Amino acid sequence: MLSARRASQLLRRTFATTATRRYTPLTVTSPVPTFFDAVRVKGFEDGPIPAFRVLGPEGVPLNATGQEQASKADLDTLERMLEVMTTLPILDQILYSSQRQGRISFYMTSYGEEGAVVGSAAAWEPEDEVFAQYREVGVLLWRSYPLSSLMAQVFSTASDAATRGRQMPVHYGSKEHHFHTISSPLGTQLPQASGAAYALKRTPGREKNCVICYAGEGATSEGDFHAGLNKQWVCLKSSVPTRVSLLTQYVRRFAISTPVAQQYAGDGIAARGPGYGIDTIRVDGNDPLAVYLACKEARKTAVDGQKPVLVEAMTYRVGHHSTSDDSSAYRSLSAVESVKKLDSPIFRLRRYLESLSPPRWSAERDAAVKDSSKRAILKEFSKAEKDKKPPLAEMFGDVFAPVEGEDKVGADGLERPQREQKEELKRLIEKWGETPAWKKELGKFEGGREAVLKW
Ligand SMILES: Cc1ncc(C[n+]2csc(CCOP(=O)(O)OP(=O)(O)O)c2C)c(N)n1
């Protein structure tokens, strides 16, 4: 134990030395008051931060420089990217309609963002730790996450290893695939990612890995975004690609119904990177090739340079926010249709691969990929739909970590609030369990009503 006097001496000495070490004399001064409100990029001083783009909307490299950039991408990787990007809308269509039919409770699609999600996923190493928001199932597909696990999560079955049937659909997680379980509250993943980056830095053998954190522009208005970015200055080992809806300044982008015009007043999210001393790039998120190249470079900077990187991918959510949303209430359907027609990331990459000599994609290949993906998805869908959910007792566990010697915990390992909830459920099931509606629902859980009566 330090005496108060000794503690105050130490404090004074610490502050004194820190202040001396940190003091930097001002080297650049201005004789007149100079205010500024924007980040200026060399060569683009007069306008907003430029977006890196290789392929135009028709899938053609912009010019000779674009051609040179495009040639840096490995063609097998681009082909696999297109396979996954082609599979995503099929998965979305099946799961979205199944929610509409009442077969699952909730869903969120990736429509329009396939290039930003899969293009970035392809740039990471398989053991890089991913903290996603919720619209990045494409990263899991890229990492060959089994469709059986995906369906188990969506249908909350007993085989759902990540969330044991306790979470809403799309809250995937897989230790094996280095994909941390999704959290619903916006921004949660940002400080978590910074913490994980710090842990990686201290873990022998993980020196060549980094942490990836995805966030939409709505999430970047949370305080956790700023806490996370500031913390990365210390962690020095992660990259933060954010998804920001939209490609041109004329199409509106949304966080549910909040348009970007109400989300921030500055030049997007990229403008914030330099404020935290972070290397930053803005990329056309609907150009999968540009996203891939930018993220590869970002990863190299993060790992070799041991520092954080911010990648802002400008894309557009063409689907509704979720199955709980009807976006026609806040944006015109014709605007959405025109983005779909004029700025499809899938079309861009497909056109590019078809135009190569020899071609790396064709109408036949496209049809074959769609057909086999649909079959594989439907097979696992049908199986998971029939699978039982975990026993009802499962829902009460894992709320609090067990504390050794803690007498509040009962024989079943539960704390008082969970024990009371469990008893209440048992009471209700004893009373109503035989009514047709309850009987039908209880039949979906392993052990059903009988298991509950034995509690
Ligand atoms: C802390 C918190 N506030 C509000 C919500 C409700 N909410 C869920 S998603 C969302 C919009 C997020 O938009 P964005 O980050 O741009 O991602 P997008 O859905 O557009 O991909 C909101 C407000 C939430 N989940 N958490």
Give a description of the structure.
One of its GO terms (molecular function) is branched-chain 2-oxo acid dehydrogenase activity. Its EC number is 1.2.4.4. This protein is of the alpha/beta class. The chain folds into 2 domains: 64-386, Rossmann fold; 392-453, no CATH class. The chain has helices spanning 4-22, 64-70, 75-100, 114-121, 137-142, 147-154, 189-201, 223-235, 260-263, 288-305, 333-342, 345-355, 363-386, 416-432, 436-442, 448-453, and strands at residues 129-131, 179-180, 211-213, 215-216, 238-245, 254-255, 258-259, 279-284, 309-315. The strands form 2 sheets. Strands 1, 2, 3, 4, 5, 8 and 9 form a 7-stranded parallel sheet that branches. β6 and β7 (258-259) form a beta hairpin. The longest helix has 26 residues, at 75-100. It is globular, with a radius of gyration of 25 Å. The two termini are 50 Å apart. Bound molecules: thiamine diphosphate (TPP). Thiamine diphosphate is lined by residues 135, 184-186, 216-219, 245, 255-256, 317, 321.
